[in-house]
Amino acid sequence: MAISFAAQTGFASAAPTLLGRKLLETTDLTAEELLRLLRLAQYLKVQARSEQRTLLRDRTLAMLFEKPSLRTRVSFEVAMTQLGGQVLFAQGGEFLVGTRESPEDAARTLSRYVDVIAVRTHAHEPLERFAQAATVPVINALSARAHPCQALADVLTAQERFGSLAGLRIAYLGDARNNVAASLAEASVMLGATVQFGCPPTHRPSESYLHKLTTIGAPSGGTARAFTNPVRAVRGADIVYTDVWTSMGEERYRERNDAMLRPYAVTEGLLSFAQPKAIFMHCLPAHRGEEVTAGVIDGPQSAVFDQAENRMHAQKALLLALLTELKGLPV
Ligand code: CP
Ligand code: NVA
Description:
Elements: H1 5-9, H2 31-46, E1 60-65, H3 71-82, E2 86-91, H4 103-111, E3 116-120, H5 125-133, E4 138-140, H6 148-162, E5 169-173, H7 179-190, E6 194-198, H8 207-217, E7 223-227, H9 230-234, E8 239-242, H10 254-261, H11 268-271, E9 279-282, H12 294-297, H13 304-323
Helix pairs in contact: 2-6, 2-13, 3-13, 4-5, 6-7, 6-13, 7-8
The structure holds phosphoric acid mono(formamide)ester and norvaline.
Phosphoric acid mono(formamide)ester (CP) binds next to helix 3.
């Protein structure tokens, strides 16, 4: 079944609001809510900045990061600042979910000070406990399981380039069990794309997860499958996506990952099996000569800096949706 016109346009009436909600995984959103956020992000991307200066006046975002970040940290800070709000940031030893005090106590305390909290953690479970106890919206700024903010920017970029995700073929090469792969796949199938993982059996999503993706995608015709042969995953794809072979916190597996994932590196040769107009995507940071060649990531098919820019626009939309009733905005 195709997604309704109302959902595609984002102008359906009586829409459920995101006000006060949390975003820990892409599936915390419905397909319709995701499309609305994308529409708002597109609007904010071209809106005069002078018109945005007071939208989140007197609101404070706390960003609590257990792991390093460039894009997520800076794009959230700039988004919040341009919307008239304030940001505070704590990293590493200053903030480790569940070490100095329970996730619940930290969440309840912070909820008395700030309006929204973005957290980057190792394990996902303490983040769930934190979000459950918080009385303000909590955003997953990357956990071992999910990176939903990245997925928002990814589908925004795909929508900009192709008009819609419906019917697109997206090949994801490399560690198909990681956070970026999961959130990308969930968002993509929700919007009607086919996701083709190219990975060895060691890095293949479980059959139950592939089944879950197909179930999530069913209303819009989205589906997911996995191939051991990288060429089969990439053949005919509109988008070829990869991420680092070893995610933060997984360094003990680096040697094994390097050995197992080398055949899945995105090279000019592999990319040539995709559609002639295919784009290359990567969440960044990237390692040239490992998961992608310099020729591909710095080449004409690469969309990686559009993706990075779109982090900011998508997160502006998210912050506004979580913190306001979006009065006067096109949703
Ligand atoms: N893509 C991404 O999340 O980048 P950072 O780790 O730099 O935030
Ligand atoms: N999968 C990577 C994404 C970094 C943005 C990691 O978790 O390190």
